[in-house]
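Q: Sequence in, structure out?
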Amino acid sequence: MLNKIELEYYKNFFPKTEETITEEWKNHREIAMPSFLSYFNQGPLNYEEQSINWIMDLFSKMDDTIEKNYGIKTTDLISFYNAIDSLFQSNFNATITHNYRDNWEQYSNYPLFVADEAPQEIKDLFDENRKYTLLSVADFGMNLRFKKEDLTDESLTIEKINKILSLLSTKRKEQDFLFYTQTKPLNPLIEFPIIDLEDGLFQVFEIKQILHSIQYHLEKLCNNQCQDKFVKQKGSLLETNIIELFKQLFGEKDLRIYQSYYVVDGCEQDILLIWGKYAFIIEAKAYNIKEPFRDPEKAFVRIKNDFDSCIGYAYEQTRRVEKYFIDGKNIDIKDKNGNIIDTIDTTKIDCDFSIIVNQKSFGPIQTNLELLLHKEKDDDVLPWAVKFDDLEVFIKTLIAQKKKPTLFVDFLLIRELLHGHIICDDELQICGGFLSKKITKRVAKDESKMIYTIPDLANLFDEQYKRGMGFKNERNIEYKKSGNTLFW
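A: Exactly. Output:
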C-alpha cells in the first residue's frame, strides 16, 4: 500500500499530455520532486536522546505557559515517555527471560490454541513458560499496550497521566485525511500517537513517535502564546549546543569563540570559531519548513522561498565574514554597541569554512546546494549546510572513535567538492561514506560522475550508538559498555 501511495506521489510530477517540456520545467521538478518525497516519506531521523535533550532544554524554560494550559510540566511529559519506554523494554525482555508482567493475559484477546491434530512436539511448545512469548509473537502489539496504573510512581500520578493522555491519545474513528504525513488535515497519529482502546488499555505503535508528538504539541502551544520568547530561546539554545559541540571536538582551551558578534554595518553574526590556523563561520537557523504543495510549480515556489529564507540568507551572512578571509583583511570583532573587542589577523588563517546549521533538514536540496544556492562567482566555495542532529552524531562519533580533530577539517575540504554531483537526502550517509573511505577526495573531485548515496553508508553511526555515542543522559549506557548486551 505504501508503494502504491508513493507511485501516486510520483504522478504529480509527470508531464501532462498538453505540456511543453522546457529546461525550466525540468529544473522545477528536479527541485520539487525529491524535496516533496523526502518531506513526506522521511520522518525525523535522530536518536531518542537528541529529542529528549532538545525538549527538556528548550521547553522547561516555557513551563509557566505549559503548566498554565496543560496542568503539567515538561519533565512530566518526559517522565511519561520514560515510564512507557521502560515498561515496553521489560515486556520485550520477558519474551526471553519469562519474567512476565502481572495478569499478562489481560493485554490481549488474541486466541492462542493448538489444534488437536497438531504433532506432539508442537503441543509441547505450549507450556506455561512459553505462552507469553508465543502470544506476543502472534499478537505483536501486545508488548506495546499499557494500563494507566502500569506507569504510576511517586512523581507520575494518575492525575498527571490522565492529563497527558488527554493530550496525546485519541480513539479510533473515521477522519478526513488522505496522505499519511500530510499536515492539513493532520494524520491523527502524528498528533495522537496513543490509541485509547476503550477497555482500560492503550495502544502505542511506534514509541519514538510519542517524543515527536510531545514536541509538536509544545511547539504549537508556545508559538501561539509566547512566540517572541520561544523563538528567541530556540535560537539561543541551538547556538549554545553548537558551541558546546565544537568545544568537545577541539578542546575549550584551544578554541577562540565569538558569539552574537558584529563585523559589517551593524549586522549581527551568530558564531565564529578560531582553532589554530582554521576558522569556522557558523550561522544557526531554527527555521520551520513548510509542507510542499502537490502541484509541482507551486511546490517549487514554496520550497525555493523557504530555502532562500533559511539557507540562502544564512549564506549571505557567512559571506560577509568570509570575504575578509578571502581578501586577507583584518577583522575587527565588535559588540552590539560598536566597540571593538578583538581583532583577527586573517593572514594567519590557512582555511576558513562556512557552516550553516539548521534545526530541520531540507533533504536533497541541502546536501547538494548547487541546485538552489546562487554563487557570486563560479569559483566560490559553497558552505556546508547540515541539520544539528546530524552534526552532533558526526562529531560525537569522531570523538568516541578518538579521531584527530583535523579529520573534521579533511571532511569539510572534501564536502565542498561534492556539490553539483551528489544525490542524497540524508547527510549522515555522506558523513558515513567519508569515515568508511567510500567517499574520498578522488571521488569528490571527479565532477563527471554523479554520486548516489545509500542508507547503508550511515550504518556505522548505529553501530557506534550501540557502543555509546556520548550523548548527554545517554540511555542504557551501562548495558552498551558491558559488552554483554544483544541489540534487537
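Residues 228-482 form one domain.
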